[in-house]
Structure formats: C-alpha cells, structure tokens
Write a sequence for this structure.
C-alpha cells in the first residue's frame, strides 16, 4: 500500500506514494476535509484541479445525515459525492468527543446523543468498521477514545487502553478486501502512554498509523515532541498520519519529523471567514488596507483565484456579503495547502527539505504579503 | 452591431448576433445577472462553460459599492471581475424605483437614499452615462423612470415623457466610441403611451431598444401584449431587450414575439432557495420525495451538476445547510436557461420555433421531472 520513494538526507522527511482501490496519492499529503461529503463550497473538479489527490470525510456526520443506508443505495460514498479518487474516513471517535451533546464510553462501545436532533445512538468498534466499509472508504479509522487537554494520567491511560482494545477488535472485524485500516495512537501528552500505545499497535500490524488526540489545546512544542516520539516507534514501511494537523507551520514541523499525511478544516473554515493563507502569512481581506490593492492574494500563487482576481475585488465580495467571496477564498486556501505539499515533496526529492522549511517559515512568519 | 441571421418562417422569432468591444454573442440571448460584479456563488469560468456569452451588472449597486473610482482604478469592470466577454449594465432606474429607501424624480435627475447606508445621492442622466462608460460597459442603458403597477395614465405619461427626455440627453452625453446605447421604452400598460414612446425613441436611432417596466406585477397576458405592440414598432435591424424577463415560459413567449435579449435573477435566486428548473418543470430538492432519488435533477440536462450529482445528494447538501448545494443548484439553473436559449436558436435556424415552443411548454408545464 505504501511505497517509500525517498528519505531526505538531513531530516526524517519522507517522499512516498500510497496506493488505494481508487488510485494513488503522493505523500506528504494534505487531505481537504469534506465532512458532509462536500469540501465546503467547492466543486470537486476545482478541488481536484487544485491538486487534491485524496479527501477526508466524516463517518460520524454521514452516519447521522443522510444516513449510511442512503449512501449504500447510491452505490457508496464515492458515487454519492462524485469523487472518484481516494477517500479516508474518520471513525467518529473525535466527533463523539467534540460534538455529541452527551457521550458515555463503555468497553463495549460508545453511547452518544446526536448533536443534530438529540437522538441516542450506541456504536461498537465493529459497527464503526462496518459503517466505513459500507461507505466504501479507501482508508478506514478504528473507533478510538480521545481525552481533553489537560487530562490526568489515569484518565489518559484508561482511554489509551480502550483505544488499543478497540483497535484489536476493529482489526478482527475488518474485511481485508475493503480498504486499508490504520491504528490510532493515543496517550495524551504522556510519553510513556504514547510509547506503549504505539508499540502495541505496531505489534498488531496495521496498514498505517495515525497520531490522534493532538492539537486539542496543548502547546506546539508538546505536539511536536509527541509526534517525534511516536514516529520514532513506527515502522518505516507504513504511512504516518497526524490527525487534524494543521497550520502550515505545524505541517512543515511534522513533515520534518517523518509524518506523511495531514487533514484540517482550516483552509475552508478560514476562507469562509475571509482569511487567506499566503506564502507571506495570513491576510484578512476585509481590511480597509486592501480597498485599492489590485495585487493577487499571493503574488507567488498559481491558483485560479490569484490568476484572476485582486484583493480589492475579493474585499468587495466580502463587503457585499457575496457567496463568491467565501468560495474563492476557500479555493485559494485549499490550493495553498496542496501547493505547500507539492513544494515539500519537491524539496524532499532534492534533499533540501531543511532549507525549504527555513525559507518557508521566514517568509510566512514575516508577513511579507500583508 | 446587430446582425440578423435568420427569421423563423412561422413566427417573429429571430436568430442574430451582436458584436461588442469584448466579442460577440448570439441572440436570442440570456444574460445571467451579476449585480455586485459576481453571478452569485459561481466562478466565472463555470458561468462561461455553462454557455454565458454576456452577463449583466448593475450600475446602481456598483456605484454604491465598491464605488466607481475603485473599478476605474482596477482598469474597468471587466478587469475588476475578471470577465473578458460582453457586459451590459443596467442604469439604476429600476433599482432606484425598487430598492432605494427614498427617491424623488426631477426633470433634472433623480435624488435617492442608498439602501445600504441611507446616504443621499443625486444623479442626472448624464452622470449615469458617465458611470457606465467608466465601468467600460459594452451595452449601456440610459436612466429611465419606472412606475409601479397599477399606475394612473397621467403618472405613467409623466414617467414616459421624462424617460424620453432623458433618453435624448443620454444620447447627447454618450461618447460614441464607448459601448452601445439602448433606448428604454416605458409607458406602463397603456398601449398608446408605449407606442408613442417607442416611436420617439426610434426617431433618435439608438443601437437597440429595451422594453422596461414590464413584469412589475401585471398579468402575463398584459406583458405579452405590450411586448408584441412595442416590438412591432421597432426597426428590424436593431436588437430588442425585455428587461428582467423572466421565467422560461415568459422567455419563449417573448422570443416568439421577436425579442432578442433577456436577463433575470431567477436562476441564481431560485437556486439558492433550493429550486431547480428542469425540462419537466420546477423541482424543490429539499422535498422528502428525493431522499433516495438517485436520478439527476434533469435527465435531459448536460450540465456539470446533472452529469455528476443525484437529487438525493443535492437534497442532502440542502438539509446539511452546505454552501455547495446553493452553488450547484445555481449552476444548474444558469445552465438550464442558457441551454434553453441554445435550443431556441437551433429551432429558429430550422424554422421550427413554434413546434419547439409547444413541445417545451408541454413538458415544462406537465411537471414530468417532478
């Protein structure tokens, strides 16, 4: 499934390729998030044209609405949403933790109340695998238990133990032919718990390994340390995925530590709020300073938006509350993240990742575009 | 500017071509509306791909926001919005009538209060020409005075006389090199006033003629009668434009009476509300009946949306309040209107417009798609 193509000479950054039932994608990869079977506001042809090779969808949301039966009748998630490339689905563990009105964890599974209508549901790890297999996911996540930050060691240990037990049951329940299955490393900010979790999952031999429960409120340094620790315990021949990461600077730090896959709602969420990511930092297009600024969002960017529209026009759209403003900023941001990954892959190929990271962070942090 | 290519043998329907500074467009033509320099929610490349050859923008809205100076500095409206094809601009006469918080008409011009911030503005017919010339419009409308429906004959006469006087002043003020100028026929539902207005405008020799003040609440029959009467008084070698028309059935009726150009916000407005136009009538995608309907919106439609997505998926997007639902329905509807015009032009070419109209209305009115 994973082919390691090249390792950067001066860091742990890796260039790879992952093969799925719906084609390949290059790593390090960024997966735009399509929670409700849509990358918010964007046509899939534009998402694809921006360089997306794989997207993420949320099993929790799709289970609640429109419901798995409808997607099954549509011929699976790929057909339902008309995306013919790889899809990774999240198990819902994080959504039950962050969105559900109420949740109670048992060894047997999780009981929760839908954030949409308050109805109660009970899902076992086996149910969650079945749901994602029915969706037709190319990469499946097992049910896991997240904890808030900060969290006592004892609570973290209970959640980690349950995550490991559920990972085992998920592996047993998973039909080999239907999508790859990753193991999710939990353990909060406790190095020994993380290490223990990683080793036990590796022993079960998953198709890849996710680092879960990061970026839930802890400092960047804590995130990077945990990633470094966990990645060090994972086999070289399997992909590593940092769930929900992150900002551009988080991505380059994680790549340097050997992480291969990322997803985040940031590009579309910030786009809807009028914030553009650029090689020179973030821009808030509504600001009066852009009223007569006829430059593109990012003069270095090759996206449709930067090739066609000025900051002044985009500011006008946001001021006039025009939907196209949200669409164009989302599209630019998605392109920006995907283009960052292209640049990262090129730098690794040339054994120049460390220099690339330095240059990128210098421009990005100096706000040269603002 | 206007080339009459073919007249249908059995009706007054005409096939033509209009040449502007930004290229040609075929008539009968439908112009998607881009009020704030954006066809709501749609990328211009998709609007173009859907078949739009010309769009309409509103001078009133752009005058208020972002302001003409900014668009001038951007290099004109085409550059500002990145649309390199023809643009027709409305004069604002209708918006002053329908949107402004307050308005007072003088022979000299119109005083109104912005619907955005309550600020007072005074515009003469000469100002309105200057504004559209600065925007760089390919087809310019003079300031006119609309009246509500119903309206007394005396009020209608005063508004019509003012419209004619302003048309003359607009023509004198208009620099020949900068876009075509149409005359706008007013006169409410009074045949003699309409006739008088049309004749006097024709004597001034405009580049084309608009029928204004229709579809403001009067019955369809009244609209069709007025269009027939007015078109009968207009020269064959100039284009005729029915402003703000309309529904698909209104468009085919108007084409049959010799009208060449149309604009309407219906495709995007209905799209945002979850209503799709199809060859078999209108569909409200939110309806429960489409929950497991995996057919496209319109099985006869060749648009991106119908080629890729089912009613069940679109219903899901609207239920989940996903922006993409609004975007996709708007895109389908714009395509539907533009495709209707393509079919109309083909039918005229083959001298089969009357049969086409009958077949189209039969399917459309019978709701065969619902």
């Amino acid at each position: 499934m994973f082919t390691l193509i090249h390792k950067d000479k001066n860091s742990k950054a890796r260039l790879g390729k992952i093969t799925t039932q719906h084609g390949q994608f290059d790593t390090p990869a960024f997966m735009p998030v399509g929670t409700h079977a849509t990358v918010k506001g964007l046509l899939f042809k534009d998402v694809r044209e921006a360089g997306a090779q794989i997207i993420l969808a949320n099993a929790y949301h799709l289970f609640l609405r429109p419901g798995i039966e409808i997607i099954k009748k549509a011929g699976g998630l790929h057909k339902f949403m008309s995306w013919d490339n790889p899809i990774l689905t999240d198990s819902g563990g994080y959504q039950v933790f962050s969105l559900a009105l109420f949740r109670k964890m048992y060894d047997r599974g999780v009981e929760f109340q839908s954030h949409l209508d308050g109805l109660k549901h009970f899902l076992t790890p086996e149910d969650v695998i079945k749901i994602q297999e029915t969706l037709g996911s190319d990469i499946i996540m097992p049910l896991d238990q997240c904890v808030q930050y900060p969290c006592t060691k004892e609570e973290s240990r209970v959640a980690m133990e349950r995550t490991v037990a559920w990972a085992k049951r998920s592996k047993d329940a998973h039909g080999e032919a239907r999508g790859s299955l990753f193991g999710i490393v939990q353990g909060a900010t406790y190095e020994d718990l993380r290490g223990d979790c990683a080793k036990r999952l590796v022993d079960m031999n998953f198709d890849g390994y996710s680092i879960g429960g990061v970026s839930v409120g802890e400092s960047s340094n804590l995130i990077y340390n945990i990633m470094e620790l966990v990645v060090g315990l994972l086999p070289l021949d399997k992909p590593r995925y940092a769930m929900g990461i992150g900002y551009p600077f988080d991505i380059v730090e994680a790549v340097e530590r050997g992480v291969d896959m990322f997803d985040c709602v940031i590009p579309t969420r910030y786009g809807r709020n009028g914030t553009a990511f650029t090689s020179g930092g973030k821009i808030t297009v509504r600001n009066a300073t852009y009223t007569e600024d006829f430059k593109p969002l990012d003069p270095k960017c090759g996206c449709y938006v930067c090739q066609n529209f000025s900051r002044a026009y985009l500011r006008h759209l946001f001021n006039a509350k025009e939907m196209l403003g949200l669409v164009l900023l989302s599209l630019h941001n998605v392109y920006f993240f995907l283009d960052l990954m292209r640049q990262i892959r090129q730098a690794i190929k040339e054994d120049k990742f460390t220099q690339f990271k330095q240059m990128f962070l210098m421009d990005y942090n100096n706000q040269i575009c603002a």
Observations:
- DSSP finds 15 helices and 16 strands in chain B.
- The longest strand of chain B covers residues 14-20.
- The mean pLDDT of chain B is 96.
- The interface with chain A takes residues 36-46, 61, 65-66, 70, 73-75, 80-82, 272, 291-292, 294, 304, 308-310, 312-313, 315-317, 319-320, 322-324, 326-328, 331 of chain B (CB under 8 Å).
